[in-house]
C-alpha cells in the first residue's frame, strides 16, 4: 500500500505537468525565480500538487502501520477525487487510480493498527506545513487580487497564519471572487487540520492515561474497591486515597464525574463479571457496594459471589430498612444503614438518653459472618 501511495502521488504530479504541456529545462531555468516557476501551474493545480507530496510523505508512516497516516491518506485521496470530479470536471485515469487506492485502504484497514504520539505529531506537522505552503504559494500567485497586494514571502506567511488560525485582522483583504474563494478555502482547511490534529493527539494522550491506570490497577493487591455513583462512594474513595490506601472505584462512564480526576476508576457495569475482574477483585481486601439503589446493590453482591477465587470481604449499604432482611440473605460481611443510625440517635436525643460509642457502633454496623 505504501508503494502504491507513492506511485499515486507521483502520477498526480506527472498528470498535472503533462496536462500543462510543460517541459522543464532544469539546467537553464533552475527554478531560481520561484514565482516565475509557479506560473507553470494554475491556481487549482497547487492544492493537488501539495496533496500528492503529502501522500508521498505519508507513505513512510503507512509502511510502519500508523493508523493516523491511514486515516489522513484516505481523506487526501477523497479530496483528490473530489477535485477531479467537482472542480476540474475531468474523470480520468488518475481519478480512477485514486478512487481504487482509497477502496484498497478501506479494505485493508486492519493492517494499520498502531497508535503512536510520534506518528500523530509528524502527520499533523505534515498537514500543517502542506496547508501553509498551499496558502503562501496561492496568496503569492494571486497577490494582486488582495488589498494591499501580497508581493513578498513575509506578507504571504503573515496572511497564511492569520487565515489558518482564523484570527482575521482585516489588514489584508481579498477584493476579487478568486481571492475570496481562496481565502475561504484556507480558513476551512485550517480549521479542519488544526481540529483533527488536536483531537487525535489529545485522544492518544487520553488512551495513554487509561493504559497507565490499567497497569497501576493490575499491580494492586489487598486494595479497596468502591462500587457506586453517589456522594458517599466518592467521599469514601477520596478519604481512603488521602490516607494512602490503594483504592479503586467502579462506576458507569456517565457517572464518573462523582470522582476526582486522580482517582483510579474502572468504567463499566458493576453487575458484569468482566468489570469486576478489571478492578482486580480476586486480590482485593474489601469491596463496598454503595449504590443508591438496594436492587443494584443486591445484583452486585450476587455477581461478586460468582467471581472465581474472590476472598474479599463485602460491605453494603441499605437505603431502605424494609430491604434489610432480603439483602442479609446474601450474607455480606457488613450491612451499613444510615437510616437506622439517624433514627436511633435522634430518638435518644429527643428522649434525653445518653449516647454511648458502643451503641453507635452497633447501630452503624450490623455484622453477619459468612457460613
TrEMBL record:
Q: Report domain RCK N-terminal positions.
A: 221-338
- InterPro entries given in the database record: K_chnl_dom (IPR013099), NAD(P)-bd_dom_sf (IPR036291), RCK_N (IPR003148), Trk_Ktr_HKT_K-transport (IPR050721)
Which GO CC terms are listed, alphabetically? plasma membrane
Annotated keywords: Ion channel, Ion transport, Membrane, Transmembrane, Transmembrane helix, Transport
Where is the chain membrane-spanning? 6-26, 38-61, 67-88, 95-112, 118-143, 155-175, 181-206
Instruction: Name the Pfam families for this protein.
Output: Ion_trans_2, TrkA_N
GO terms in the biological process aspect are: monoatomic ion transmembrane transport; potassium ion transport
Its membrane topology: Multi-pass membrane protein
Q: Where in the cell is it found?
A: Cell membrane
Protein name, please?
Answer: Potassium channel protein
What is the organism field in this record?
Proteus myxofaciens ATCC 19692
Amino acid at each position: 500500500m505504501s508503494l502504491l501511495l507513492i506511485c499515486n502521488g507521483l502520477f498526480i504530479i506527472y498528470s498535472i505537468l503533462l496536462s500543462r504541456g510543460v517541459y522543464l529545462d532544469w539546467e537553464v531555468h533552475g527554478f531560481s525565480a520561484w514565482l516565475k516557476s509557479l506560473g507553470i501551474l494554475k491556481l487549482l493545480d497547487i492544492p493537488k500538487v501539495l496533496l500528492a507530496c503529502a501522500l508521498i510523505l505519508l507513505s513512510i508512516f503507512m509502511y510502519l502501520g500508523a493508523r493516523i497516516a491511514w486515516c489522513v491518506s484516505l481523506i487526501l485521496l477523497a479530496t483528490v477525487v473530489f477535485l477531479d470530479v467537482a472542480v476540474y470536471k475531468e474523470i480520468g485515469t488518475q481519478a480512477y487510480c485514486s478512487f481504487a487506492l482509497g477502496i484498497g485502504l478501506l479494505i485493508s484497514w486492519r493492517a494499520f493498527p498502531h497508535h503512536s504520539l510520534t506518528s500523530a505529531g509528524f502527520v499533523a506537522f505534515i498537514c500543517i506545513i502542506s496547508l501553509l505552503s498551499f496558502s503562501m504559494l496561492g496568496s503569492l500567485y494571486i497577490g494582486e487580487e488582495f488589498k494591499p497586494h501580497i508581493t513578498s514571502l513575509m506578507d504571504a506567511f503573515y496572511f497564511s497564519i492569520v487565515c489558518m488560525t482564523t484570527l482575521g485582522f482585516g489588514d489584508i483583504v481579498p477584493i476579487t471572487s478568486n481571492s475570496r474563494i481562496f481565502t475561504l478555502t484556507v480558513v476551512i482547511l485550517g480549521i479542519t487540520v488544526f481540529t483533527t490534529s488536536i483531537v487525535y493527539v489529545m485522544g492518544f494522550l487520553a488512551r495513554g492515561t487509561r493504559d497507565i491506570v490499567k497497569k497501576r490497577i493490575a499491580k494492586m493487591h489487598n486494595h479497596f474497591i468502591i462500587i457506586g455513583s453517589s456522594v458517599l462512594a466518592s467521599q469514601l474513595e477520596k478519604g481512603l486515597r488521602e490516607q494512602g490506601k490503594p483504592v479503586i472505584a467502579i462506576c458507569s462512564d456517565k457517572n464518573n464525574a462523582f470522582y476526582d480526576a486522580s482517582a483510579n476508576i474502572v468504567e463499566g457495569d458493576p453487575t458484569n463479571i468482566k468489570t469486576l475482574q478489571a478492578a482486580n477483585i480476586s486480590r482485593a481486601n474489601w469491596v463496598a457496594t454503595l449504590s443508591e439503589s438496594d436492587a443494584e446493590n443486591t445484583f452486585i453482591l450476587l455477581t461478586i459471589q460468582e467471581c472465581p477465587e474472590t476472598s474479599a470481604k463485602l460491605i453494603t449499604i441499605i437505603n431502605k430498612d424494609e430491604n434489610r432482611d432480603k439483602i442479609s440473605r446474601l450474607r455480606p460481611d457488613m450491612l451499613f444503614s444510615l437510616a437506622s443510625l439517624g433514627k436511633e440517635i435522634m430518638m435518644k436525643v429527643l428522649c434525653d438518653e445518653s449516647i454511648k460509642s458502643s451503641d453507635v457502633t452497633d447501630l452503624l454496623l450490623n455484622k453477619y459472618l459468612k457460613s
